[in-house]
Specification:
Layout: E1 11-16, H1 27-39, E2 45-49, H2 50-58, H3 60-67, H4 70-81, H5 86-97, H6 108-124, E3 131-137, H7 143-156, E4 161-165, H8 167-170, H9 175-180, E5 186-188, H10 193-205, E6 218-219, H11 221-225, H12 247-254, E7 266-268, E8 271-272, E9 301-302, H13 305-319, E10 323-326, H14 336-344, E11 351-357, H15 362-371, E12 373-379, H16 385-390, H17 397-410, E13 413-414, E14 417-420, H18 427-440, E15 447-450, E16 453-454, H19 458-461, E17 470-473, H20 475-480, H21 483-488, E18 493-497, H22 500-525, E19 534-538, E20 542-547, E21 555-560, H23 561-569, E22 574-575, H24 576-582, H25 588-600, E23 604-607, E24 610-613, E25 616-617
Parallel strand pairs: 1-2, 1-3, 3-4, 4-5, 7-10, 10-11, 11-12, 12-13, 14-15, 19-25
Antiparallel strand pairs: 5-6, 8-9, 16-18, 17-18, 19-20, 20-21, 22-24, 23-24
Bound molecules: iron/sulfur cluster (SF4).
């Protein structure tokens, strides 16, 4: 690691504007600050969480409701940026919030003017001349707010070097962005550590240098014009990264009135990228067909288990909080067990959140649970194996049901999405989904989400293969931005011409069934006895299965002897030939009718001659 003892008289400022979740510091800012501090011990690096200030000003409930809806969030600063468009933008806001109880009655003009005033006060309260450069981390829902802050700050301090980077800006490096937003001097393509530290070094050595330096990963309008682009410039390993520095966020929170204080969630990063998204031999792309989450990285890197555990230990000790959100898109395949065993050994009652793939074994899930994982987002996405193939998830419906069951049994809240309207999906995908849903009803309902076409996703790159005829910016951008910007800049959310109308009709019954699923699940779980929908208790040589109903008493089944053993053996899905060889005395002629009967009663699921028992144990082994 390079080390630069050079002192620098001016500070580096790193900024995060609304609307990230307010109750956690920015991991992008925290990680960059810690890294730069290591590199330049004499340099002052400040991080400013403007979004927390805005959340405090407008109230946490309102802020949270807005931050959960990315289009809604983008409307507010868009109206401040382009006041001449505010009527159109207001209409979009009203349309997008009409069914949201918290924000539907908000007066848009009033909200915008409060947010604008607080933002302007924040900007006016900072001496911008003290900074050598201002770096903005731009992720989900931060596009218009960042542009607003950068524009305003630049009018106050025209010489300040303005840099934008982050997942929402990685794909926007085009001459048109610099033309429409001349306040932005540079864009960081990819992760920020190396490009930023080289830039700081350069500006320290040549403070008066106005010529844009040629630094890998730093894009300027000049480098775009001369096509002098160097691609990503990223760390080889994450193991040497110091723990994120969240002090500025906590200091800001400390200044709030007692009724505005809360215990934040600490974001932690185990890995960058996605191991499922490797370069394919044929198409040149792999990973899930809809995904554009990893455009800012190349390859997959993960920290050593001991580094992760030490970081969680240190951060929770320092900030006296026990909620930790792991920000990875996907956990490392081989190290998951080791990482979470080490977290478990910290002996802290942590509350952890993470995202992972549906192929995670029960054993790993149990380790996650023991470490403190209470909620999880599993990449299930579909309940039809045909459709899962089109999505290139590398999973099957039976695997998805199995992981949903394990979460239910282990008491991990699984927040999974069910993608509707995927281009090129057909009647068979829908009918497979509907019939599989019958078997998924005992488990936590999935959230129905519309397919979103993301810039850089494999679907865009092979649009024709998905029946897509034309791709263009999502129409909401043409409300938020003036036409000339919309026409020349390609934004992250795209729309398409193809089979959208057909898809809407096709998926209507699934949408309705998801709503019914939620109703049933909530009804069965209401009241003080929080018993599962489908469960079993083991009597050692017999098994009682209880299926709770919304209306009427539970339906019970008793399995004895080998039937019990077969049912328990299929706690994880098993091919029929494995069941046969495991129970040699049983014979196919007795086994198959039994399995068929269990499937008919929806106590087991069958796919491609593989069987999975669906009830969860009331006394699960860890
Ligand atoms: S959806 Fe998740 S698993 Fe799939 S490519 Fe994206 S990050 Fe990887």
């Amino acid at each position: 690691m390079t080390h630069h003892p050079a002192s620098a008289s001016k500070k580096v400022g790193l900024f995060s504007t609304p609307w990230p979740l307010y109750n956690r510091p920015s991991i992008q800012l925290g990680t960059l600050k810690a890294y730069l501090k290591n590199q330049f011990p004499l340099l002052t690096i400040e991080t400013h969480h403007f979004y927390l200030k805005i959340a405090e000003a407008i109230g946490y409930e309102q802020y949270q409701a807005i931050s959960k809806k990315s289009w809604v969030a983008e409307t507010i600063y868009a109206a401040a940026l382009f006041p001449e468009r505010s009527e159109k933008i207001k209409k979009l806001f009203c349309r997008l919030t009409s069914n949201n109880n918290v924000i539907r009655n908000i007066d848009f003009d009033n909200l915008t003017s409060i947010v604008k005033k607080v933002s302007d006060d924040i900007i006016g309260g900072i001496d911008w001349k003290q900074f050598r450069l201002a770096g903005f981390s731009v992720c989900l829902c931060q596009l218009t707010s960042t542009l607003y802050f950068i524009r305003k700050i630049k009018t106050l301090c025209p010489d300040l070097v303005m840099i934008a980077g982050g997942s929402s800006f990685s794909g926007l490096s085009s001459p048109d962005v610099f033309r429409h937003f001349p306040e932005i001097n540079m864009i960081i393509a990819g992760e920020g550590e190396l490009p930023l530290s080289r830039l700081v070094s350069h500006l320290s050595a040549c403070p008066e240098d106005e010529v844009s330096p040629s630094i890998p990963g730093v894009v300027t309008s000049g480098s775009l014009e001369s096509r002098h682009l160097s691609g990503f410039c990223q760390l080889e390993t994450l193991n040497d990264l110091p723990a994120p520095d969240y002090n500025d966020y906590f200091h800001l929170l400390d200044t709030f009135a007692p009724d505005k204080k809360f215990f934040p969630t600490i974001p932690v990063e185990i890995s960058r990228g996605c191991w499922w998204r490797r370069k394919g031999k044929k198409s040149g792309h792999s990973g899930c067909a809809f995904c554009n989450l990893n455009l800012q990285w190349e390859g997959y890197r993960s920290k050593k288990p001991s580094v992760v555990a030490d970081e969680i230990d240190a951060l929770t000790r320092k900030h006296r909080t026990l909620s930790v959100s792991i920000v990875d898109n996907v956990l490392p395949l081989k190290q998951t067990h080791d990482i979470f065993s080490k977290i478990s050994a910290l002996n802290k009652d942590l509350s952890l959140f993470c995202e992972t793939r549906a192929t995670t074994s029960r054993h790993s899930l149990a380790t996650l649970k023991k470490a403190g994982v209470r909620s999880i987002q599993i990449g299930i996405e579909a309940l039809s194996t045909r459709l899962l193939k089109k999505l290139n998830k590398g999973t099957t419906a039976i695997q998805n049901l199995e992981v949903m069951k394990h979460c239910e049994e282990l008491g991990i809240m699984n927040y999974a999405n069910l993608i509707l309207y995927f281009p090129g999906s057909d009647e068979l995908d829908v009918s497979e989904t509907l019939s599989c849903m019958e078997f998924a009803l005992p488990f936590r309902p999935m959230k129905a989400v519309r397919f979103q076409l993301g810039l850089g996703s494999p679907v865009i790159q092979n649009a024709g293969a998905f029946g897509i005829k034309a791709v263009y910016n999502h129409p909401n951008y043409s409300v938020l931005f003036p036409e000339k910007i919309c026409r020349s800049v390609r934004f992250l959310n795209q729309a398409y011409r193809g089979d959208r109308g057909r898809q809407k009709k096709l998926w209507k019954p699934v949408k309705e069934k998801v709503a019914a699923w939620k109703k049933i699940y909530d009804a069965v779980h209401s009241g003080s006895a929080h018993t599962p929908v489908l469960s079993h208790r083991d009597g050692r040589d017999f098994l009682i299965i209880t299926h709770r109903q919304v209306n009427g008493g539970p339906v019970t089944h008793r399995l004895a002897g080998t039937s019990r053993q077969v049912y328990l053996y299929c706690r994880q899905h098993r091919p029929v030939e494995n069941i046969v060889s495991h129970f040699p005395g049983l014979g196919q002629d007795r086994l198959i009718p039994f399995l068929k009967m269990m499937v008919d009663k929806k106590l087991m699921f069958e796919e491609n001659k593989k069987y999975l028992s669906l009830s969860i144990s009331m006394n699960p082994t860890p």
